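Record type: monomer structure entry
Structure origin: computed from sequence
Chain ID: A
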Amino acid sequence: MAHVERIIEGLDCVAEGAVWLSAHDPRFHAALERVGPLPLRRYGEGFPALLDAILGQQVSTRSAAAVRARMEAAAIFSEDGVAGASDEALRACGLSRQKMRYARALAEARLDYDALR
């Protein structure tokens, strides 16, 4: 069987995938009957998405959103912004020492996000 790469665009794509999985795995079919239609959960891409993942580790979603909002307000929610921000600026936004380290490493890596798709 040929491998087909697709990006899930909407609920129709999710439903199509669920039908395929149900036909190929009885356990999935049983689970789908119990939970009903699957929701569409799409997240951003690139640097902001990975930075959000770092910010969200071991904190509530509300806390992570507050840190992101402070970073955006300080204009440091970008690769250049994080890479050039001082420890004090990042700490003022609510980043721990460890999250500063991870965020800077991500910013300085200058990943080719298009190539990762």
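Annotation 1: Residues 11-24 form the longest helix (14 residues).
Annotation 2: Residues 60 and 70 are 16 Å apart (CA to CA).
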